[in-house]
Amino acid sequence: EEPYPTIVTTSKLMTTGVDCKTCKLIVLDNNINSMTEFKQIIGRGTRLYPDKGKEYFTIIDFRDACRLFADPDFDGDPVVIVDGGDGGEDWDPKPPIADEGTPETLVGGAVFEPPTEYFPDAKYRVRGVPVRILNERVQYYDKDGALITESIKDYSRKNILEEFATLEKFIKAWNAADKKQVIIEELRDRGVLLEALRELSGKDYDDFDLIMHIAFDKKPLTKRERVNNVQKQGYLHKYEGVCREVLTALLDKYMNEGVSELEDTHVLENAPFDRFGSAKKIAKLFVGKAAYLTAVREMERVIFAAA
User: Fold this and answer.
1) Rounded alpha-carbon distances, angstroms, from residue 154 to 28, 31, 94, 166, 249
2) What pLDDT does 60 receive?
3) Quick check: pTM over 0.85?
4) Rounded to a whole number, what is the distance in angstroms from the first to the last CA of the chain?
């Protein structure tokens, strides 16, 4: 019932000569090694139809066929064609350069107006023309240097489950580890790209929450939410004076930087802990280094209890 309904078809049905100016999405799910075939398929999306909102198209590539864009045979050397004069005495083949901060005027007097929907906040200007990023593609390499062709989430889930087949095994290993950083580094060695996953999430999740969410579909909590849970449960009330201040500062370190800051005793040599004295002096306040490490491990258990 729509004037221009959405139709899904295959490139094989769109033979040579078929004109489809409204094609806005091309999905590549076949292995394509022919440059001619690649050009024909991609060419289905390159027709402009501004009257119907067709000013760009999107390619979803499951087979790394877009590597052919980098092949010199794709388009050869750049060719510039200037149409705007007869080569006479006053003819200038170069288009006028807009003043800085002035929108570029196109042929026919039209002013370029970039689209304004669903774009990130970052702003760029090219020769005075405001431009925006329409789409962005990020690819990663695995631990062996091969390009990852599946989604980073699926790839990471697979590698996590190879190490921890069930949620119970992961929780048991996490709680038993004297240093959680060892587990995190082992997973990184397996190719689990936690930093990339955190960037994609757009949230300040701890590595623990990323692993739980990606591999076992558990709702993740931000580090701030976990710190708030510790404070609500009153764990810090077990300690008084400087000891409580030290543990509170450790919680802040965790919230800002992660679990590795809790487990590294060298952190006590830096601000804000240095105002309490040396690391050795701080340990004495807890009745020895062993008691200090026990307090930290207990606090870790409270932090990660809301799993």
Assistant:
1) 19, 21, 50, 16, 36
2) 93
3) no
4) 49
Helix, strand and coil percent figures for the chain, each rounded to 5: 45, 5, 50
HSE-up of residue 158 (Cα within 13 Å, Cβ side): 9
Cα distance between residue 226 and residue 307, in whole Å: 10
Lowest mean pLDDT among 4-18, 41-55, 90-104, 165-179: 90-104
Instruction: Compute the half-sphere exposure of residue 227: CA atoms within 13 Å on the CB side of its CA.
Output: 20
> Whose structure tokens read 């095994």?
169
Q: Give the tens place of pLDDT for each residue, 82-96.
A: 555 555 555 555 555
Task: Tell the burial category of 226 from Cβ atoms under 10 Å away from its Cβ (0-12, 13-18, 19+).
Answer: buried
**Is the distance from CB of 28 to CB of 62 less than 8 angstroms?**
yes
For the chain, the C-alpha Rg in angstroms (whole number) is 29
pLDDT of amino acid 113: 58
**One-character DSSP codes across 49-63:** BGGGTBS--EEEESS
Q: What are phi and psi of 36, to 5 degrees?
A: -60, -45
Read off the amino acid at residue 170: F
H or E, element range at 125: strand 124-126
